[in-house]
Amino acid sequence: MVWDGDQQRQKLTNSGGSTYFVYDPTAGIPAVLIETDGENETFYVREPGGELIARAQGATRQYYFFDRLGSAVAMVPAVEGNPTDRLFYTPWGELVTSGTRASTVGTTANPYRYVGQLGYYYHHQDAGLQDWMQLGVRFYQPELGRFERRDPALPRAPYDYASGAPLFAIDPNGMLPGRYSFCERHCTAPGALAAIACRVCKGVINQLCKRALTYCCDADNAACHLRCEDCTDPKKKEDCSKNCELRYTACLLGAGAFE
After folding, report:
1. Which letter does DSSP use for residue 89 in this model?
2. If you ran DSSP here, which 8-state letter would residue 174 be given?
3. What is the CB-side half-sphere exposure of residue 242 using CA atoms within 13 A?
4. Is 118 helix (H, G, I), strand (E, B) or coil?
5. How far is CA 172 from CA 75, 128, 181, in A?
6. Residue 216: closest CA among 245, 251, 175
7. Across all residues in the chain, what is the average pLDDT?
8. How do strand 85-86 and strand 72-77 relate by DSSP bridges?
9. How far lies 97's CA from each of 88, 92, 94, 208, in Å?
10. pTM of the predicted model, to two decimals?
11. Please, what sign has the CA dihedral across residues 206, 196, 219, 169?
């Protein structure tokens, strides 16, 4: 694989050849706009923030339907017709392939399945990577619910995915963000309606955090340590990290979000 300076994959090479990727540099999530093997091109239509809408290859366009977490549950042709794909998942993101809720996969080259709306990438091009999903800078194994490498911003349980709360937590960049990351699409958008949606979203997250306090405090602590990385002065960086740990302890005792 070839990566750029922003840690976005630019090229994937396997026995079948090479795939090249073009990203939207303005999106807040890993947002591929174009995939090409040099002969065939696939285009992805997205919201301004990077959220996936549709997929186009040649004369064929398909629209995605997502659940509230952002996982693709259906793909439907742009022309009137039945869904080509119906997808079901385990809580940790494995595709269900047997039983009464077995998935129907009509588009084998679709890389966006579990939380695909926000950039979780399934490597259909490489059989050696098909058990893994790429989440930003790290690779995730849904069968185990674990990453293959440490989260440098999360000293506690650095290999865990979503701190054991996959039904409401997401991690598009592979580095655990603050508890309100799911609300970012509303909180960074302009307008009064977006401000209302931001407050509502944070209220919902706070209610969920009452049942998953450790996850929320871990998320806040990781985001806090990431901000400390911006400190160029070693003493200020050390003080910042100590402050994060103090706020983490207070959070576990019920003090609420870091912000």
Report:
1. B
2. S
3. 6
4. helix
5. 21, 22, 10
6. 251
7. 83
8. antiparallel
9. 8, 14, 9, 30
10. 0.69
11. positive
Helix, strand, coil percent values for the chain (each to nearest 5): 30, 25, 50
Rounded Cα distance, 85 and 48, in Å:
25
Question: Which of 48, 107, 41 is closest to 77 using CA atoms?
Answer: 107
- Express each pLDDT in 124-178 by its tens digit: 877 778 788 888 778 899 998 888 887 665 556 678 787 677 876 777 766 656 7
What are the two backbone dihedrals, phi and then psi, of residue 217, each rounded to the nearest 5 degrees? -70, -40
Mind giving me the DSSP string for 14-46? ETTEEEEEEE-TT-SS--EEEEESSS-EEEEEE
C-beta neighbour count of 132 within 10 angstroms? 19
Q: How far from the centroid of its chain's Cα atoms is residue 2's Cα? A: 20
Q: Is 129 exposed, middle or buried (0-12, 13-18, 19+ CB in 10 A)?
A: middle
d(CA 205, CA 58) in angstroms, rounded, equals 41
Within its chain, how far is the Cα of 71 from the centroid?
Answer: 10
- The pLDDT > 90 percentage for the chain reads 25
Collect all residues with Cβ–Cβ distance below 8 Å to 77 and sequence separation of at least 6. 60, 61, 62, 63, 84
Q: What DSSP character marks residue 58?
A: T
Following DSSP, what letter does each residue of 134-163 receive, concatenated? EETTEEEETTTTEESS--TT--SSTTBSGG
Contact assessment for residue 217 and residue 205, using Cβ atoms and an 8 Å cutoff: no
Rg (CA), the chain: 19
Let me know how long the chain is: 259
Mean pLDDT of 180-205: 80
